[in-house]
Write a structure and sequence with these properties.
This is Short-chain dehydrogenase. The protein is an alpha/beta fold and 285 residues long. The protein is 45% helix and 12% strand. The chain has helices at 17-28, 40-51, 67-81, 104-132, 154-176, 218-232, 240-249, 262-273, and strands at residues 8-12, 32-37, 57-61, 86-89, 136-141, 181-186, 254-255.
Length: 285
């Protein structure tokens, strides 16, 4: 996909972070922009910024982890702009804590947004793109956490590995169909987003019990502090959108923006192929 003017982009998680940056880049390329997010207040502010860049914008307040709401997003998009040319499948959350400590609500929320939400978007929008028979592209946002593992974040790693695998498998199938839809999976390291504040966007059905022992624990507080530190000290977000659009133009599948992690990714594969056991010594250094 190389032509963007007057094409339609659908962006989930569009009110902040990667989604907002991509929405602004879409506007610079004179695309029609559909901005979807669960945070209505932030979505209103973000969409106003994009509208002021001189493009048509449709805003949809929605929860990506609810299939019917994803269907409604597609319905509103087609009613307004008639086509879907770019899907930036971005909405995501992060939780931390060991498998035996973290409450099930945290798992359900993380899986609901990061896995089911990603799948719902592809299930709804890819058939529309295939039917159009025009050049289209899907970018699924994963993380370097989908290519390597660390202690303390099993739910997040699980969902991001799932996103990478889901995207790879779908991409193979589209290739075998000689389809007009191309795919990319974006696997960044730490970037200055708003991800560490995702708790304020948790839907009611996934609400936590503040009296649960886990939320009083030192490990929970440490997880929050670590998330805030690594995100706020990550690379500036301003370079993200250009990297993503370059990948779209070049039909680049893996979008890796943090080369410092490549040796760790390579070590993980090397360890498997050599029949060795993974070692926590790497994280004690």
């Amino acid at each position: 996909m190389k032509e963007f003017k007057n094409r339609t982009a659908v962006i989930t998680g569009a009110a902040n972070g990667f989604g907002f940056e991509v929405a602004k880049e879409c506007a610079r390329r004179e695309m029609k922009v559909v901005m979807a997010d669960i945070d209505g207040e932030d979505l209103k502010k973000a969409s106003q910024t994009v509208k002021e860049m001189g493009v048509e914008v449709l805003t949809v307040e929605m929860d990506t982890s609810v299939y019917e709401e994803m269907e409604n997003l597609a319905k509103q998009t087609l009613e307004t702009f008639r086509t879907v040319d770019l899907l930036f499948n971005n909405a995501g959350v992060v939780t931390s804590g060991s498998i035996w400590e973290m409450p099930l609500k945290d798992w359900e929320w993380t899986m609901g947004v990061n896995v089911w939400g990603m799948m719902y978007a592809m299930r709804v929008f890819v058939p529309i793109m295939l039917k159009q028979q025009t050049p289209c592209h899907v970018v699924n946002v994963a993380s370097v956490a989908g290519l390597l593992t660390t202690p303390g974040m099993p739910a997040y790693h699980t969902t991001k590995f799932a996103t990478v695998a889901m995207t790879e498998s779908a991409n193979y199938q589209l290739q075998m169909m000689n389809a007009n839809v191309k795919m990319s999976v974006y696997c960044p390291g730490f970037v200055q987003t708003d991800l560490h504040n995702c708790e304020k966007r948790r839907p009611e059905r996934f609400k936590i019990d503040p009296d649960h022992p886990y939320y009083q624990s030192e490990s929970y507080r440490a997880g929050l502090a670590k998330a805030e530190h690594v995100i706020t000290t990550g690379i500036p977000i301003t370079s993200v959108a250009q990297s993503i659009f370059t990948a779209i133009e070049e039909e680049q599948f893996y979008i890796l923006t943090h080369p410092q992690y490549n040796p760790v990714i390579g070590l993980r594969v090397k360890t498997m192929l050599e029949g060795k056991n993974p070692s926590a010594e790497l994280f004690r250094k």
